[in-house]
Amino acid sequence: RLIRFRYRLIPYIYTEYMKSALKNTMYFRPLSFVYPEDMDCLEIEDQLMVGESLMVAPVLEPNSTGRNIYLPEDMIEVRLTNTEEIIQTEIPKGRHYIKFPLDELVFYIRKGHALPLAKPAMRTDLIDFENLSYIGDKEVIQKAGKEGIPPYKVYIDDGFTTEYKEI
């Protein structure tokens, strides 16, 4: 299940990789690089941003089912349950103890951001980049839907050349 969900994130993972490669910026960034004015972020060494929108806070202790995290701004917690249900909850800025069951995947999306999700696939060449759904800030997703534009520009390529396009 969790591996299938990882494949659903490939449009985001690949697009953020392309952005960082084309702009010569960092793909993974410590929180202190994103929030330099937040002194609490200077102390955090085990949470990081993946691209512009996604924050991860891995559980590093063996047999642990939770951990303390710090959110430098209000964020949306995304929790993939063992039934493949996606639960999104707004979490306020600050310190929190979060439960991380072993059979769930948990990460955070910045407010004002949306992430593309592909339909489940077992290989990258089977991912449908044209029919994506979105998770994250519901207002951003709804506004984009009303305007007829996607809430997130996705980079795709043919898998063989260095050519790519934005959709």
From TrEMBL:
Domain Glycosyl hydrolase family 31 C-terminal: 26-114
GO molecular function, one term: hydrolase activity, hydrolyzing O-glycosyl compounds
Pfam families reported for this sequence: Glyco_hydro_31_3rd
Superkingdom: Bacteria
Protein name: Glycosyl hydrolase family 31 C-terminal domain-containing protein
